[in-house]
């Protein structure tokens, strides 16, 4: 990293900007020299059952008592009816893979991970879920059945992910 910084400093002197050459193409790239660190708090009190459910291996979400629409991720209020009349329901943890993409250029907060696959599936309950896909992305395709599993992330916390169903 130190060598990279020195190269950028040389390029500032030569070109007038913090640039580096792409290793593969030789194309000039802007190098943002600022360090970015981000921490934030999000209140989850109104959707605490979602997290409690994951601890029990369940995938819970909210359903509007008035219009009957399911929301995932769970919401405190129905955006359609504009009311807070929600009930908690357990989702079926199977569905169909709709699309996927492999993330090779990872944001700094995920730099410790190998390239990973993000996928969208439509669960049998009708809601769409976006999650990391476990396994080799070359061995799955849209239309394939997947299931949602609760697993422990590299960082140590629980999260849900999509897993292809063999067969």
From TrEMBL:
Gene3D superfamilies: 6.10.30.10. SUPFAM superfamilies: Nucleic acid-binding proteins. Pfam families: OB_ChsH2_C (PF01796), zf-ChsH2 (PF12172). Signal peptide: none annotated. Residues 88-149 form the ChsH2 C-terminal OB-fold domain. InterPro entries: ChsH2_C (IPR002878), ChsH2_Znr (IPR022002), NA-bd_OB-fold (IPR012340), Thioester_dehydratase-like (IPR052513). Residues 52-87 form the ChsH2 rubredoxin-like zinc ribbon domain. This is 3-hydroxybutyryl-CoA epimerase. It comes from Ferroglobus placidus (strain DSM 10642 / AEDII12DO). The lineage of its organism: Archaea, Methanobacteriati, Methanobacteriota, Archaeoglobi, Archaeoglobales.
């Amino acid at each position: 990293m130190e060598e990279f910084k020195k190269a950028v400093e040389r390029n500032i002197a030569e070109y007038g900007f913090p640039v580096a050459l792409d290793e593969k193409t030789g194309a000039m790239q802007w190098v943002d020299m600022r360090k970015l660190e981000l921490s934030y708090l999000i209140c989850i009190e109104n959707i605490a059952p979602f997290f409690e459910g994951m601890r029990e291996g369940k995938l819970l979400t909210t359903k509007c008592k008035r219009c009957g629409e399911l929301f995932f991720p769970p919401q405190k209020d129905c955006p359609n009816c504009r009311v807070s009349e929600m009930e908690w329901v357990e989702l079926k943890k199977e569905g169909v893979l709709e699309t996927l993409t492999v993330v090779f250029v990872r944001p700094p907060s995920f730099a410790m991970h190998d390239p990973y696959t993000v996928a969208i599936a439509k669960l049998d309950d009708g809601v769409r879920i976006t999650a990391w896909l476990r396994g080799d992305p070359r061995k799955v395709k849209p239309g394939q059945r997947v299931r949602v599993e609760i697993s422990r992330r590299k960082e140590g916390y629980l999260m849900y992910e999509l897993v292809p169903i063999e067969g």
